[in-house]
Amino acid sequence: MIHGYQIPPQLVFVCEDDKHTVEVYKLIIENNIDTDKFKIYYTTDLRQNTTSLNKSLLEFNYDKETGKFKVNNVDIKLLG
Hints:
The protein is α+β, with helices and mostly antiparallel strands. It has 2 helices and 4 strands. The strands form 2 sheets. Strands 1-2 form a two-stranded parallel sheet. A two-stranded antiparallel sheet has the order 3-4.
């Protein structure tokens, strides 16, 4: 349980496009924002206009093998 929540709070950034998504992510990293207490997802306006929202969210994960961050699609069932 984190701060009284059974499920960590989620923050979704709606960005202009994929380039803007990376810029937002870089700002979070550069400013050392502590993201351990909540889950951050990213999307774009065009991703929200698809027929299914299930794969409209992205997240960044650190790859220990390469030492780089990579973007993954998040498969979440939205809207029943």
